[in-house]
Automatic annotation (TrEMBL):
UniProt entry tagged with the keyword Flavoprotein: yes
Molecular function GO terms recorded: oxidoreductase activity
Pfam families in the record: Pyr_redox_2 (PF07992)
Ranges of residues in domain FAD/NAD(P)-binding: 8-285
Source organism, top-level taxon: Bacteria
InterPro entries: FAD/NAD-bd_sf, FAD/NAD-binding_dom, Ferredoxin-NADP_redctase_2
Gene3D superfamilies documented for this protein: FAD/NAD(P)-binding domain
Protein name (database record): Pyridine nucleotide-disulfide oxidoreductase
Keywords of this entry: Flavoprotein, Oxidoreductase
Amino acid sequence: MSAEDVLDALVIGAGPAGLTAATYLARFRRRLAVIDAGASRARWIPTRHNCPGFPFGVEGPRLLDRLRTQAQKYGVRVREGRVTGLRRDDRGVFTAQTRDGPDLRARCVLLATGIVDRMPHLFELRQAIERGAVRLCAVCDGYEAGDGTLAVYGPLPVALAHAEFLRTFSRDVSAVASEPAEPDPAMRERARRAGVRLLPVPEALRLEDDRLVMRFADGERRFDSVYAALGGDAQSALATALGARCDDNGERVVDAHQQTSIDGLYAIGDVVSALNQISVAVGHAAIAATAVHNRLPRNWA
């Protein structure tokens, strides 16, 4: 294997984190490849108003298009595909096996593989998200949902914690159990103090007139927005197979340079144990890409 066969860096994932990292690395004149399975969490975003630089909001697909266009300006080409295996040899070189293509070898790998949200069972899920009846991130859009009739749907302790946060924006917030659970006196008192209504597991959910309707044994309730707090699955099997450390949620634990416990393996974006925000993902990318450039042999002009 010659030095020419080995990339400086391989970026796995082309969401906001992966595309930002690719732009940085390309501007550092590094030899890199980007491979993406086309499942960025950002594609679910209807419109976000807390993304820096977009005072009138931006849709997730549009943001991804702009980030991809910016990376392409510097010669980045995103290859469609899925990495099925990742190994590291005794020289510290990574080999990524892909489903439909040749293996890729790189001195450093940046995992930008994200998480997959667990969604409520709702036939009209896509439409409900597009219309704001189902939302996934109160940090992102609690301001826009404010003053509406809101609910958080998830395991009751988790739902209550999220509902307390939403009380920043609305006076009418409910915590709805996604699984049978009887709140204890301490939880009831906590909800009372926060002004949050505790509700049992609904019998059914449906979208009606841009609102989410939940049917309970004693009748129906309509909510302007329902936040799903069902958790998510970190897409970190590649790092796990190499023995990289993770937290209790399966998200990667990294150092100040975004490096995992495996030398040369970096993690950025929602796959990292951190606040899942586009602005955070972009910051991860800048830190990791710069650290990768600085650790590699100099590419003098």
